[in-house]
Amino acid sequence: MPRYIIERNFAEQLNVSDDDKIHIKEINDEVGVEWIFSFLSADKRKTYCLYEAPDEESLRKAAERLNIPADVITPVDQIDPGIFA
Questions:
Q1: Which top-rank group of organisms is this from (predicted)?
Q2: Rounded to two decimals, what is the model's pTM?
Q3: Residue 15 has what pLDDT?
């Protein structure tokens, strides 16, 4: 499955409750995307999220349903330091 990084910019600091996490998983499952992990900026107003999804449109649909931004969606491939050994 293709992987994507989503950059999200929030007007206020991001706080995610356990209930929010359950709701996010339900919506993601319905549209066929998987949230792998995210990085949160020090000011808690920007995230960089790694997802697996069939396409960018699925990610945009999930974000829209969750009422969260998806400012930049970038297709990515994985590399690690081992390729340079």
A1: Bacteria
A2: 0.88
A3: 84
